[in-house]
Amino acid sequence: MSTTAARGEDAFQRALTLHQQGRLEEADSLYAELLQRQPAHLQALHLSGIIALQMNRPRRALALFGEALRVDPRCVPLLVNQGNALQQLAQHEPAMRSFDAALALDPHLAEAHFNRGNALRDLGRYTEAVAGYQAALALKPAYADAHINHGLSLARLGRHGEALASYERAIALRGDCADAHYNRGNELRELGRFEDAVGAYDRALAIAPGFADAHLNRGTVLVELRRHSDALASFERAIALRPNDAEGYFNRGAALQYIGDFEAALASYGTALAINPDHDGALGNRAGALRELEQLEAALASYDRAIACRPDRIDLHADRLHTRMQACDWRDLASDAARVAARIESRAAANPFGILAWCGSAALQRSAAENWVEGKFPAMPAPGPAAKGPRPQRVRLGYFSSDLHEHATAYLIAELLELHDRSRFEVTAFSFGPDSMGQMRRRLQAACEHFVDVSGQSDEAVALMTRNSSIDIAVDLKGFTRDARMGIFARRAAPLQVSYLGWPGTTGAPYMDYLIADSTLVPQGNQASFCEKIVYLPHSYQVNDRKRVIADRQFDRAALGLPPTGLVFCCFNNSYKITPAVLDLWMRILRRVDGSVLWLVEHSALAARNLRREAALRAVDPGRLIFAPRMDLPLHLARQRAADLFLDTFPCNAHTTASDALWAGLPLLTCPGEPFAARVAASLLSAIDLPELIAATPLEYEEIAVRLAADPSALAGIRQKLARNRLAAPLFDTPRYARHLEAAYLKMYERHRSGLPPADLQVECEA
Predict the structure, then answer these.
(1) What is the pTM of this model?
(2) Which domains are delineated in the chain?
């Protein structure tokens, strides 16, 4: 060896030693000096490029690797590292070519297969990435990083069980890897195993206490487990670690919103938006919180900003449309509804609740429910085996609701719970709503043999509890209404699961077996609009409470803000049920009936202003729309006697509001449509024998209203008939209704005990 070569080799060895010691700047300086003397020194070029990668200088690394490859274009490690530099520069396709060139020379190089998988994953080609990681693992089964990245790609493909197995193999190889535990927690969360997910995040945090994402995701799982104070503490830790990250504040706001602390939630969203003004999640949730606080104008502005950031999110469009319906702000209503409908038909998910008010298609409502369930509440594994034992002497019923307090559902169902035949049925109520100790709450507790507050328990824990309690029939009173818990039923809480009373349509959930209905709600031939099998009660599906109190107070018209004379039409439905087509009808009626007024409940000042403006646009004096303040139910029922005729809305009818009117002695006029929600009032009128108030078309609806207004004796006759039928017809005959519903439960139960699948069932009317 020449003296020059020897000096060069000595310099290289000194540089290599510094490199191995981690003294990168010193090593790089020596490599540079060597390359000035020997520009084609392959190892110095290669290792200097590696230092550039280590120091996050990928462009310099790429240049050095290029020089080295000119010296030896078939050097496999150089080709691999060139690919790595290209990866750092997000040049994924060129990186793939570099890895492919390396593998053509040495197909048994696990690292090249692994890095090629990374490039494919970055390109979104997850199926090919999985194959790349599998090739690496076939060569090197103990390759922990390959197991982790294999899991990440499987997760992106929705193959969560396989992803979980990959992370667990990585943990078996390298138990101190916080990322592996964190990713395992993410997959457990996806699989609905929330308690296990918390354990995985805790393990990650024991290894890396400053792992902000682990604190963040731990908090989201704790929200699912209803451990809200713990969730908020996790979010606070994430915020402390990353105070300039909007995600922590967004998630804290979501947790606060979930527990009903809307003002605090707004403050947290405000901080998130100060950091990231285009955070569509914070903007959308902020809009929802503002809507809950009845600040509808601000809510709409927030939805507009959210949609500007994420126009592809159809759930935001649907929520904004529902808020506009609440505000009776009908700008662009037809085009907005068409946009939402088109996306639902293409399998996009939006909350089905808001769709009821404007959608007259039962098929579209089913699609909306199915999409929502598929995205939010897919079927989950049961949390444990069903309890075994001898056949019980009584059928065990479980009623599930957040509304077991002063709420419309409670006002309907209270007497039914009291009347259940305890020789044949054991009744348990599972309450996940507020712990109100008002009169209705006490009455419901007394009506049930078991009343269990599960508001602080996860869906999985509740489902396990009901299975351990051997509940035979789980009855959901919520569907997709506020504070629903469909996740309980997704875990098969009972052998038979029934949708009843609270949700006016199909749940779209394959795990809901039956829907309680009647032949008016679901005519024969219309069953295709429902995923559940239909149980037909002989009269109306809706139960009522004969003990519902009407206040003794006699309201005079002046005290109610009504004119001293003239016919009073009314509608006490929520404002979101009023559509432009319905208001067109109402205003035509007012124009044809001199001196008449329309009496509405003022749900918001904005809705009242908008309705008055819309009345003026239809050539009606806005002063003929009179808005009533909200009032306790007994007084509200009493004041309805001052009205002459209730004008129903469609395609979403009055439901409990309709039975309230009929119970108070106020006739109601309806026009049924196609979906369940559009046929409820007709069901109630049929059950109280007032078919003359069911119009076949909107034109007939208008003519009936005008004719009755012009014929006081005819209207008085209908009021008298309603008074006679009120306690004689089936609608308010709660004992008879209870017998029919119990017969329905027994039919479905006996069918199940015989090993038969759910089927449409008909409960016969008593002789």
Answers:
(1) 0.90
(2) 395-537 (3.40.50.11380), 559-732 (3.40.50.2000)
